[in-house]
Amino acid sequence: MSNTDFVLAIEDLTVSFDGFKAVDGLNLYVDKNELRVVIGPNGAGKTTVLDMICGKTKATSGSIKFKGMELTKMAEHQIVRAGVGRKFQTPSIYENLSVFENLEISFPRGRTVFGALMFKRTADVDQRIHEVADMIYLSDLLDKEAGLLSHGQKQWLEIGMLLIQDPELLMLDEPVAGMSVREREQTADLLNRICQDRSVIVIEHDMEFVKRIAHKVTVLHQGKILSQGTMEQVQSDERVIEVYLGH
Ligand code: ADP
């Protein structure tokens, strides 16, 4: 497989903050329909990598190619338009609006102010909102004020708001933090369904959850890849055990 066949191809990516390399010569390749989990101790550089993919943090050097497009040269809003969605740990939903309105407001409205003004709710928009609401377990709660949802439901709503934009790469930062056991199971099922149509990168600390969802796991340590492979492979890797257990 050549590097251009990957949805995401990161090569020799480095970012320095006052001389400190938070990400140091990283190479990372993500396939179409792959669900990649990035793990690693605090400070390993996980968040910084996602920040660089979505354009929030600019790389010091290296390349991030998404479907052949060089993301390091693009602004955040251009990266979103190119098809990269990012969910942060704290949901950014509109608490005073209904579930339906939150999904509707997230619908892509064209690239111009004119496009946004001309936006009309069509049958297609309605159908897509219902499809997404069904996917995120909220189809019976479309009229409910988002602020009244449970913590887990709010997380799903934000995932739904990203799905409405139909990203080809979805990145999630600790999606099950604070969720109940049942909500974690539902989130695992949701992520498995999401990656049937797109690629997903998840940062996660909950190893039981990682086991359930990961196609491949990348272990970051001090800005570099310490180990990579299936969950079984990285779990039995001496270097990973050493870093996690501190021997
Ligand atoms: P992780 O998500 O794996 O816990 P981070 O990516 O948040 O790690 O951070 C990696 C390292 O980079 C940490 O040492 C952190 O303090 C440092 N870092 C991240 N962002 C900045 C920044 N904007 N300025 C200075 N240092 C930063």
UniProtKB/TrEMBL annotation:
SUPFAM superfamilies: P-loop containing nucleoside triphosphate hydrolases (SSF52540). GO terms for cellular component: plasma membrane. This is Urea ABC transporter, ATP-binding protein UrtD. PANTHER family: CONSERVED COMPONENT OF ABC TRANSPORTER FOR NATURAL AMINO ACIDS-RELATED, HIGH-AFFINITY BRANCHED-CHAIN AMINO ACID TRANSPORT ATP-BINDING PROTEIN. Keywords: ATP-binding, Nucleotide-binding, Transport. It comes from the Bacteria. It comes from Halothiobacillus neapolitanus (strain ATCC 23641 / DSM 15147 / CIP 104769 / NCIMB 8539 / c2). InterPro entries: ABC_AA/LPS_Transport, ABC_transporter-like_ATP-bd, ABC_transptr_urea_ATP-bd_UrtD, BCA_ABC_TP_C, P-loop_NTPase. GO terms for molecular function: ATP binding; ATP hydrolysis activity. Gene3D superfamilies: P-loop containing nucleotide triphosphate hydrolases (3.40.50.300). Residues 8-247 form the ABC transporter domain.
